Amino acid sequence: MQKELMMGNQAIALAAIDAGVTFVCGYPGTPSTEVVEAVYKNKTDDIYVEWSVNEKVALEVAAGAAYSGYRCLVTMKQVGLNACSDPAMNLSYIGVKGGLVLVVADDPGPISSQTEQDTRNFAIYSKLPLLDPSSPEEAYLMTQEAFNISEKYSTPVILRPTTRVCHSYAGIYRKKVNLTTMEKGFEKNNKWVCFPALSYLNHIKVEKRFDDLKKDFDLLPYYKPHGTGNILIIASGVNYAYAREAIDYLHLQEEQYILLEAATIPLPEHSIISLLGKVERVVVIEELDAVVERYIYYLYGKAGMSTHRIYGKLSKDVKVAGENTIDEIIHLFQKVFKLPEISVSESDTSEIIEVKKATLCAGCSHRAAFYAVKQAMKGRKAIFCGDIGCYTLGKAEPLNMVDTCLCMGAGITIGLGLQKVNPKDTVISFIGDSTFFHTGIQGVLNGIYNNGNLMIIILDNSSTAMTGGQPTPETGPIMCELPQIIKIEQVLFGLGVSNVSVVSPFDLQASIRIVKEMAELDGIRVIVFRSPCKIKQNSKYKVLLDKRICNGCGHCVKELGCPAMRMSDGIPKIEETECNGCGLCASICKRKAIVCTGGKNE
């Protein structure tokens, strides 16, 4: 058998296939997105794959398949778990028949998220078992283990890879699982119906299940301690890999420490209590909350032992937010083991790296849409409500067109609330096409039902662009052979929105005119700015600057903030390698010094 080099997310996908998964779905969200894509690329004909419209829907459709005895995998990022917490919590009580694994990818940092919440807290709250891999290799093994646990205990199981595990690579041996025979098909049973009286009885079962899992997890190989010293190091997730690297870097000997991986929720009590009685100090390294550290304090009390010195987040020895780094763990170990301070990689680096500011891509249609609205609203008091997606970057200067941003779909609903208490202001809500289908529709419905007065701008670039260009219900799921296309305007008309306009944002004058007209109307009215994402579309024009006409005013650079343009020697310079040929700069140049050729930018 030969090792295969694969990314963490690919490892999860292939492990699920090798474990006999039949039903895979999710909603794209970095760092989890590649799992569904990898399953689709490697699937056999008996595996069904879909991008669902949101995480709640994904978990519920997977639950239906799991009720019928099929192994199912659902993927999302940590904030996606918020969207499906209702079915997740109820499934903890109701249970499943076939194995159901929730891949919830946490994003410490955060690198690409609104929050850096810790999914382990939800596992404790919901009493759902959780596996916390420290590497792509463990992600592969734990995915298969998760299906076994799910079917043994008839419960969903959470797999919690973090960004560094999802996107790092490793050589992995694949192994197909010999499946036990499970009768397929849905059997009618009262247990599938969430009656209050049944929920009381199920709650008792859930508590017993959690206690039984503690005993089972004691037997997992992850809880085999390494070392014989009097300092216990407990590390979870990728921090376990960091701890091992720091130990090697500092040349610590096994008689100096005991290293234990905190790889599950619930944590096994017997293994940890037995180790606490052998050591003098404890170090807990984890991302993001002090989940394990608090549990250690609890175990000291439960076992009736005196608490030893614990180095962790609660003691401020480990930072309370953001990703941990190997260098930070090395410094921590130097303190704990009373080693002389030695320089590590970060302190040896004198080079200053310039961080590029986040901005919309060159040629992005959202820039044109924001600019049109900005021009139309000049001289008018307006509030601009943003949402989750590429267009959140509309907050950046010089556009500065996002005043609020909370969570998926909230651009519309926050706008409704703002308008109710600020009736003299013009409130405009921006939302993307994928986000509209995710949770934006309910906001529109609420606005109509409650007589809202809101202009909604749907930025339709025909993809879930921020997470890699996945399809939307409007573009058709690539995982369905005969996709049913659903146009945004059809949905809006069906909801009862009578004022709907569709326009290309690159038709600048028409866009400004339509925004001004809509601003004078009352009620719920919608403008759909439709233009495909430039990353997925060939450049339309070659854009050139005529230096004989340009007077160096810099209006094009200052107004748009396009990354393909900058001032050089007193005049704008267009970077041909970055320019996507949208022509927006040409449309705002007052002297017509910027021209677009008729052919494509080769």
TrEMBL record:
Gene3D superfamilies per record: 3.30.70.20, 3.40.50.920, 3.40.50.970
Function: Catalyzes the ferredoxin-dependent oxidative decarboxylation of arylpyruvates.
Cofactor notes: Binds 2 [4Fe-4S] clusters. In this family the first cluster has a non-standard and varying [4Fe-4S] binding motif CX(2)CX(2)CX(4-5)CP.
UniProt cross-references to Pfam families, sorted A to Z: Fer4_10, POR_N, TPP_enzyme_C
Protein name as annotated: Indolepyruvate oxidoreductase subunit IorA
Keyword field contains Oxidoreductase: yes
PROSITE patterns: 4FE4S_FER_2
Record InterPro entries: 4Fe4S_Fe-S-bd (IPR017896), HACL1-like (IPR045025), IorA (IPR017721), Pyrv_Fd/Flavodoxin_OxRdtase_N (IPR002880), THDP-binding (IPR029061), TPP_enzyme_TPP-bd (IPR011766), Transketo_C/PFOR_II (IPR009014)
EC number: 1.2.7.8
Subunit and interaction comment: Heterodimer of the IorA and IorB subunits.
Residues of the 4Fe-4S ferredoxin-type domain: 541-563, 570-599
Residues annotated for [4Fe-4S] cluster 2 binding in this entry: C562, C579, C582, C585
Keyword field: 4Fe-4S, Electron transport, Iron, Iron-sulfur, Metal-binding, Oxidoreductase, Transport
GO MF terms, alphabetically ordered: 4 iron, 4 sulfur cluster binding; indolepyruvate ferredoxin oxidoreductase activity; metal ion binding; thiamine pyrophosphate binding
UniProt-annotated binding residues for [4Fe-4S] cluster 1: C550, C553, C556, C589
Cofactor: [4Fe-4S] cluster
Enzyme category, top tier: oxidoreductase
UniProt catalytic activity: indole-3-pyruvate + 2 oxidized [2Fe-2S]-[ferredoxin] + CoA = (indol-3-yl)acetyl-CoA + 2 reduced [2Fe-2S]-[ferredoxin] + CO2 + H(+)
Highest taxon of the lineage: Bacteria
